Structure formats: C-alpha cells, structure tokens
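Objective 1b: paired records.
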Amino acid sequence: MELALQQAIDVHPVITFDVYDTLVCRVIYKDRDLWQLVDREYQKRNHAKPIGFYKKRETADHKARKTYPYREVTLDEIYEVFADLYGQELADACKALEIELEINLTFPNDEVIEAYQYALKQNKKVYIISDMYLTDTIIGQVLEHNKITGYDKLFVSCIYRKTKHEGGALFSAVLEEIRAEAKNVLHIGNDAKADIQQSKAVGLDAYLIKPPSRKSYVNESKAKSDLDYSLLYGFIKKHNSPQTPDSLAYRLGFDVFGPIVKGFMEWIKAHKDNYNLDAILFLARDGYVLQEISDQEGEFTSFYSYLSRRSVVIPMIQYRQSLEDILRLYKSWQSNIKLNTLFNRLGIPYDAEVVRSVGLSESSTFTRDELPQDERIQALYSQVRAKVYYNSQEQGQLLSDYLKQYKDYGRIGIVDLGAGTIVSALQQYSTIKNYNIDWIPLYLQNSLEPTDSYINVSQNYELQTALRLGYMFLEVFFTAPHGTTLGYEYNEKCEAVPLLEDYEYSSIPEEYKNRLAELHQGAMDFYQSYPLDMMQYGSIDADLVMTNFIQFVLHPDDEDVAYWGPYPVYIDSFEPMVKNKSLAAYLSNPKQLVTDFKDSIWPAGFLHALGNSNLLLGILNHSNQLRLFFKDKLKKG
C-alpha cells in the first residue's frame, strides 16, 4: 500500500471504496466482452446457434434507460424490456448467465484490498459505493466471491436512483444516511471524475487509484478480436499485487510463462483422465516448476523423477552393436558437436590422451553425420568401447533398481519438453526388461509427435518462427536449481539414488540466479492467482497461451535486450544470450553475420541488438512465415 494512502486512511474516521477497477477487476479486456461471453455460453450450454446477444442486450439497455424516468436503471428493469422484445424464456436464460459471469469473471485488486483490510483493522467505518445497474444483491455476491467482507453497507446507484457521476448525488445520499460530515470521509476510487472530482465537489477527501503502469508482454490487437485471449489480457493488465518483485524476469514469468504453464497443466490433467494414467512423472530438470505446482494442488499422483537423457540412454548402449546404433539413441544433436559432448553421450569421462592418440584435439568439431564416418572417431571409439559397455551394464542395473519405485503403476505419463529421447529409451528398455509399464509421452512440443504434444506448430507459422528465434527461453524457464542427472549410485541402504552433476549455474553472479527464481515465481503466481477455470469459460488452446511468448520473442525492445542479452546460458561453456559485433563490422564481413546469427542463443535478441530496432527481425519474421507457408503448399502438392 502506498504510504500516502495509508496516511489518508489514518486521518479519516470513515472510508468509502468504489467497486469496479478499485476493489475488484473484471477478467476481460473490455467490460462489454462479457456480453459476447454470454452469447457463447448460451450456445455452448443449449447447443444453439449464435443468438446475437450483444446487440439484443445493447438495445434493451438503451430502451430501458429511455423508458424509466430515473438516471440509473437496474438489471431487472433492463431484462423486463429484453423479455418484451425477445421473449421471457430467452431473457431468463441470458440474465442468469450474465449474473453468473459478472460474479465469476472478477478478481480482487490486491493493492486496494490491502488498504481495505488496513481500514478495517484501524476500526474505521467502511462503506462501499458503486455506480452500477447491478443490484446491491448481485454486487454483494461479487464482493463475497472475492472474499471482501466486513464493510458496514453497500450503496448502489440503481437502488438509490442517484449516481456519483452526476453532481455527486449518490455521495450526498450516503452522507445523509450514515450521518457523517463530508470532511471526515475519504473516498477511494479509480475514476478521476466520478470518484475524485464529484466526491470532492460535495466535500469529501478522495484518493485516486491508478491502473498498473508496469511493462506487460501482451498483444492488445488480439485482445480486441479474440474473446478467449481477452480473458488472459484483462487479467494480466489489471492484476496488481504489492508483494511482487518489480523486475522484467518476474513480468516475463507472469505474463509469458504463466499462461503456458497454466494451459499445459490443464492439458496434462485432461490427458491423465483420457488415457487412464495411474501417475505422472515430471522429469528433472524440465519439470521442476510443474512438480512444485502439482505438489501444491495434490490433484493426482506425481513424481519428480531424476530421469535424464543421459541416465536412460546409457543403459541402452549395451544392446547396440555399432557407434551409429548408439548415436541413433539420441533424437537431437547440436549442429557442431565437440568431443566432450560425444564422451558425455557415451557415458564416460573425457579422455584427452585417447583424443590425442587418434590425431584429434579438444577443439575438434563434427556434424552428426560425420561422426560415424570419420576414421579417427572410429579409432577413438575402438579404444573406449570396452569402458563404454561396462559402464552401460553397470548403469543398466542401477536404472532397473531406480525404476522399481514405479512398479505399482501400470500406465505412467511422462512430461517432457519434446525431444523424445527419454520416452523412447524408457519404452525400449522396459520392453527388453519385460517391465509391465506403459510409458505415455506428454510433450510440451514435439514436431514429430504432434498428437502427443500440447503445442502443435504445424499450421502456425508465426509460432514456428518465434520458437526458432527464441526457443532458448523455454529451456531457461523449464530448468531447476540443481545439476542434471548423470546416472545412479547406491546409497548406504543399497537404494539406487540419482547422481547429479555439479550445478553449472552455481558460479554465475547472484543477479542471474535471482532472475531465474523471479522468472519461476512469476509463472507460479500467475498459476495460483488466475481466477478462472480456463476450460470452463475460456480455452487452453496452445496457440492462445503462446500469444505472449510470440509477442515477447518477435517484438523485443532495447530494455529486454539489455536485460536478457548478458544472461549466461550453458551449452558446452557459458555464453551470453546475445553476443554480436557492431553493424559496421558485419557490413564489411557479411559471412560472419550469417555465422554469428546461426550460432546465436537468442537470434531475435541478436537481430534487435544490431540496430536497436526490430526492422531486421520483422523482415525475417514475415519472410520466414512466407517460406513455411509455401513449403507446406509444395508438400501438399
């Protein structure tokens, strides 16, 4: 709470609050989007065609205000006119839906609620005043829905037939009824005229509640045309909690990754029921935030499972004959593969002596196709093969013992970002070992398995482009503050437990560790505070929840690039998200520009940094979408 607001409350014995956009906010872009939702809910529940409710409701409202002699009409009076125009049955159904949505599409404005609770604790007389066509009964239900209780009385313009807006008449009526002197009353509201100017006109003191002025990663043009996105946009723009960090990392977590996590978790729950899954495994480290949420909700059996690509593939090596067969176990590879990566994927420590003995060095790099064809790599493999197979057998036994904890669950969903290596290896290993477990993939995004993926990018060229230019942000978000799983070892109780690599980010400056924590916290706060069941009134469609990701990736500004550009990301070594030379340097060496762009961790940030604008990024975005479109057209013939 602002100190000025606290001090104003302290010196007034009577405090009054406005309702909408003060104590509570609607979860929609524009207030009348609620009318569009009434139409959609009517269609959904009655299996009907569109009923043109928006126009009908607007007509009834306009006619009611002309029919009755007073300034403010009630919702009941509006629907009396609606019934005369369109029939009683439709009027009753739509009125019930409108009231339901008016109640459920609201959430508390935490910053003002803090002031409201403070006023109650200071034993102030607290009243609520609203200019509204909703009756005091309905607004009372809205307040109760948001756990706003303890006030002395609620005054509503449509009941008193007087408004705040016109000469402060409602304020005068309140003063007369509660028998208070105007100078002893502080009114708190968001409307500069109705709440501030008009309350002061009748002698009250007033405090203006301003909307949040922070940066938001949202797409306003989409909110105007997409009803489902209106529900996300309205909440993100209006949500205001005084306890949250004021940082770009937190905002990115709340605005961008919060909706993704919310939609993905709802999708996981639905698939658990549809596939009759007995348990869900959230893989370390990708599933760290998701498991935290699952633990808090307790809706289904889940595990944070220390199964990594390395820990499940290494045990499979013993069943493969050639180096090519081993390499095929991994679904994804970097474009330039260093030898320490090869050793890591074979499951053994890097051996500089062996590398030198075959005429290679630590800096040698290969493509995936070159590895099994290169005679030096084959010579290297021949020298380490025995060690590789021995380690594979040892880790195979340990993996078997680690998996015993899941033996009572026949069908297990595995939540994975999408490479597919872990799920595939587990399925193969279970077949070899005759385990009676069905491992069901639940991918965030896997282009090769779109039916098992939450995000299907096949027809969304803008999202495909955004993922190409900013995918690393998903990797950064879906990680955990601990090292990756190297394999397993036995503890003193002879139980197989995970052997973790040293946390690679432990040595980075604290400011970057804090950014990851705030990124996670923002997403979790969105998840916990978003007031709607997305599947009831809105949608968990992946194209919808990825909107803000697209907005951030394809439209970064100078502040974003300055903030995230230096952020260190570990691949084979630490590299900043954005590392580029000057535009002048690239003009003299265009090939270097292409190379640096391809090697960039955050390509969109790289392009923005070149000229401190999104001109190049915009050109690439649109040209790539056209390229993908025509590529699909050619495939379809």
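Objective 1b, second protein:
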Amino acid sequence: MSDLSYTQYLLKKQQILMAGQPALPTEFEVIVIGTGLEESIVAASVARNGHSVLHIDTKDYYGEAWAAFNLKGIQEWKEDLSKVQSDEVPKEELEKLLKEGEKLHILDRNSSISDVKESWFVDDDNEENQEIKTDEKTDAVPDPTEVKTEAEGTLKPESTLDPEDNVESKDESVEVAEKQVERSSSQEKKKNTWTKSQIMNERMFNLDLTPRLLYSRGSMVDLLIQSNISRYTEFKSVTRVLTVLNGMLEHVPSSRADVFATRHVSVVEKRILMKYLTFCLSYQDNPEVFEAYQSRPYYDFLKHQKLTENLIHFVIHSIAMVDKSINTLDGLKATQKFLASLGRFGNTPFLYSSFGSGELPQAFCRLCAVFGGTYYLGRSIDAIITDANDNCIGILSNGLRISCQKLVMRGQTCPPDLRSNGEAVEEVIERRICLINESILPSEKEQLTFVSCPPANANDGFTFVTEAGHGACVCPRGMYCLHLTKKSSGNGESTSLQQSFDSIMPNAQSKLLWSLDFKVATETFSSIEACQNSLYLTSGPHFELDYDRTIASARQLYFDMYPEEPFLPRAPDPEEIILGETEAEEEKPTEEEEKHTKEEEKHTEETSSIENKKEIVHE
C-alpha cells in the first residue's frame, strides 16, 4: 500500500467521487485560482453566502505556499519547482475559442520559491551496521560509579567513610548510577538508530512551508469560532515560551506564576514587572500615563516606567516582539495582544495547529465544498479571457472555456498586463526546517515551544522559532520538528538566520538529522489593484507570527466584491439543518384545527365541572 498524506487522501477521495459526476460546469459567479489560505478564506465566504464558486488549482495538493508535506511530498515538491512548463497550449489554438473583441492573457508561471537546499546529517546504512556502531559507542561508557550530570557535576562513591557503616548507601549509589548509565546509553542508541532510509519511509510527517501560531484571542481564533469552521480543526496549546538571554535559552515570565517563579528577575524587578503588565492589560483606561510618549520610542517609555534593562529585554523581545524604535502606542498594543491571550486555552498565549498549519486552508476549502463550491486540483489554466472593455469574463482550462463574473487569484501569478501600474511591495522570507533527535531545551515531558530570537543588529529583524514533536502530529516519536522563519534583510545574505540557529542550537551537529532551507518571495497587492472591476488580487504569505494580515486582506477583498454581504457568517451544525419545509408546514395546525381544538378543550372543562358538582351533591 502506497503512503498517502492527509492532503493526498482528500485529493484521491475527491477524484473518486468526481469520476461518477457529470462534466465540469462552464459558468460560475466566481472563480478562485489557487488554494492558498487567503484564496481559501475568500472562496469559503463566497460559497457560504450562496454564490456559485469554482475553486481551481494547477497543483495537485491544497495550500500552495501554505501547504504541509511528508518527506516524500517534499521531494516531489522540489522536483515540481525545478520542472520547466512544457505543456502550454499554443496561443493560436487558444484564440480559436475566443469571441469577437475578446483577448487572451497568459498567467505568470514564475515560482515564488527559490534557493532550495536540502541537507542530510545521517548515514544511509542498514540496520546491522548501525547497531554495530551503536554497540561500539556504548562500550566506551565510563565506570558506573562515576557519572557526569549537568546539574551535579561528577558523582563518586564516598571512600572516606567507614565501609562497614555505608555498605547499603554505597550499593544504592552504584545502583542509581547504573540506571543513569543505562538511560544515557539507551538515549545514545535512540539518537543513532535513525538512518536516511528509515526517515524517508516514515509516514508521520507534516512539515509546513509556512508555519504559524495562533494567538488565543487573535483574529484567526475569532474567525474559526464565528464561522463554525473550528469543528474541522484541532489545536495544541504551546506549553512554553523561551528567549535567548546571555547565550542561554530561558523561560519568559509573562503570567503572574511565571514572574514569581523565575530566577532571572530580582524581587524588586518582579514587582515592577507585575505592575507594568497589569497596566498594559487596560492601558486605554489610563491615557494620561502614556499620552506624552505616544510618538516616542517604546524603549523610552519603558525606561520612564522604571523597567530595568533585564525587564526591557523580556518585554520588547519576547512579549511585544517589536523593535526598540517602534512608537509607544504600537508597543502597548503588541504587549496587550500577548497578555490578553494568556490563560484562555493554556499557560501561554499561543495555539499550534495539529498536523501542521497546512490544515487551515483545507478547513476553509471544506466549508466551501459543503456549501456547494466546486473543486478541481491538478488542472492546468491556459489563460484569462477579457472582453472589449477589459473586464475579466472567464478562463481557459484544458481547452475548456469557463465563464465567470468575478475572478480571484494571487497577484504574483496575475498576467503583468492586467495589473495596475503601481509597484507592489515585495518582501523575502527566509525559511529553515530541521528534524532533530532531541529538544533544543530537553525536559521530562515533550514540550511545544516558541522562541523569539532578537535581532542581531539594528538592520536585522526577529527570527520566529517553533519546535513541535509527536504530540502535535508533525513527526514520529523520538524526533522534533524545528521551524525558523525570518524576514530577509535585503542584502542577499542569510547570516542572521544562521546566527539565530546557532544561538538556540550550539551543538547542532549532534542533534541534526535533516534540514531544508529556502526563500519565499511575496508581494503585497491591494485587492482591487487590477485594471478591471471583475479581477481581485490576493497577497502573501506575509512575515508575521499569526494570521492577522492575511485575514484582514481576505476580509477587505470580500467587501470589495460584495459590500452589502457579511463576511463568512456562521455555518449551521448538522443537527440544525432542516431539509425542506414540508415537515414544518405539516406540523403547523390550520385555523379550523385550532378552532376545533379550542372547542374540545372547552367541552372537556364543562364536563369536568359537571362531574365535580355531582360528586359534591352525592356527598
């Protein structure tokens, strides 16, 4: 049986169901090209409000730059990037399908992904050779009576005391030491049993191209609840938030319990920090405190509030996650956003999508399909058709003409002659995905971790790091998936990403199993930054920790299309749906039936009254 990812399973299921269906319709109100997150949100809202929609993608998987793959899927994705488009239909053949006055526009097929580099850090040996290597390493384990630990240094049996009085204690210490040696040797075996072929054959991978976290009170959580799409998704609470302090990974004190439990903040600093965090939760109620600093740097305001440099590091780099030069008002908003999400679903403000962030585009696509949206993946799009007035009226796909009133597509794939003359804002996102055999900060239980690495210099930006294990359904047991994301500084170098990586993994070579580096170039378009009223452009993915910009862009695009309609209203639960109104009409009594019922009730009351009188007379 071939290995199928969850996305591929849905695709195969859809292909089987479509095999017995009639041919693809040739007319829709809206056509959405691409199954990225923003396009999927728009398609779901269009279908939810009763419009006919065709959601089509040239790829054979959902998500585009938001997709998640297993390792075999990553290899296919890399091959697809290197392919040269050779199946284009000659323009002369396509023009035969046009009517008088219509024009063709060929899509821009340039990929937004570049500089893809895959690296392996394990041997592709068979199991027998690997076991031999492991046995050779375990033979070199030191004497069980002398074991080094990070916390206690070197443990040695006490020889200065009387051996007769301490036989039992000595035996116990030797037994404990032997157990520690067994545990360390088993961990060493576990680290060295992974081979390239074993990792490639593992099916339990969901590696995100664009990983994201959700603020517990952020716009994505609100949208999922509001639209009732949350029933299609599962999430895990991020269990710890770390920061890099003096070259070490340390916990970020954000809640009251964290503040008073941390060892890196003095007693006086704890009181100052708690007072300031309490103020940030409702800073709008006390404008007199910050109004004099609104346009001044946030750093100056923190100094004015008597926060020490130690506290300022935690607030700016790990809570607000902003630059020191940002104005005070924006810094307060970012701090409040973090604090307001604490305690809603866990001890940290973040949620992580089980099976990876690639599940979210699929959830919106599923809602679109439930409300009548038509899906077609892996179908080529030859061109876009415009009329004499330059209005978009349809597409050509596999020689089939499909008409529409409105067309939604990514701005980067839109034909250049259909864009406006304005220059789009471009940004480059640097990405690194790593598979490691041990957590960046080991603990007794598996942790779901977020780290915000501060900028290395004034021209640099933050690096967002997430680490998830088997509990989040992104990799097999005994392994962790590490994601690093940062915005490129624009100088063509990626040294700052490497610096962030080195700061959280100083001993990378002993933990690394596999890594993938690549860059994503994105452009920000206005939703109506096209030459026609019937063509709407999407943007992204942007560099952000959550989904605020993506959702705001999708909402604005939908209001540009349908200004009078609600954006993604709530979908009813299955038990709330009534198929037809026949039963409801039958249950509603007519006027004659109501009159007859009242007469029967009146007759029953009179009969009961007579019976009561008879009983009284008899008595």
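The radius of gyration is 31 Å. The longest strand covers residues 512-524.
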